[in-house]
Design goal:
Helices cover 5% and strands 59% of the residues. The chain is mainly beta. It has a single domain, classed as monomeric porin ompg (Porin). It has a twelve-stranded antiparallel β-barrel. The longest helix has 13 residues. The two termini are 32 Å apart.
Amino acid sequence: MKKTLFFLLFAAFSMTVLGAKGPGFGDRRYTLTAMGEYSYNTTWSHHGNLDLQALLPFNPHFEMEARLQLSTANVYSGALQFRPKFELPVGEMFIETDIYYRALLRSRSNDITAALGVGYRMDHVSVTLGVFSRVMDDMDRNWHSNDSYVVEPFNLLYRIEVFCRPQNNNWNLSFMFSNIDDYQMERMWQPLFGIGAWVDVKEHWRLNFGAQCKPTGMFHLDASFYGATARAGFSYRF
């Protein structure tokens, strides 16, 4: 994993064409985003989140994204994503390397997740498929004891997103089915359903809206947990 991250960082900074818009999918400008969320689930009840994101498209073939979430549920999450991209005659292929860290201070536990996925997107559809592993640990564990951390060695990740308009449009509406989002990776049988929208109000400013539902118990007998989130915020694009 360390060799992979070093290679991706080296590739990002060694290429010579920087930033700006280009042909293809989405907006290739450097972007800072702030979002406020209202969330509810049957474990943590009502809580609010503040999301901060930075998108760094170093050139048309490589971009990096950093994300941070602060929650009134006393849960704090961070993520880094590295994405090499390859333009095809029709559509674009990309590879995603992700690292997620989450500190659940309310329960004195934390976890780190590493993922690798391959995706393909066209004007109206984006599909990603990959795998991830997770290590979970107790913050108060005595390192000199025989207590051990918990490892989930293999999970499947998937994401299917459909857009009403081409992805580089000045407004859009999207629908998502996935077991991952910007701050969490659920097990393969625990999907998330989401809807998103954006509208450009000025050259540099974009308004973002979204909602998400997590009916976690839908594929097993224990359906006692579910969650819902509504979010709104803005992006500034350089």
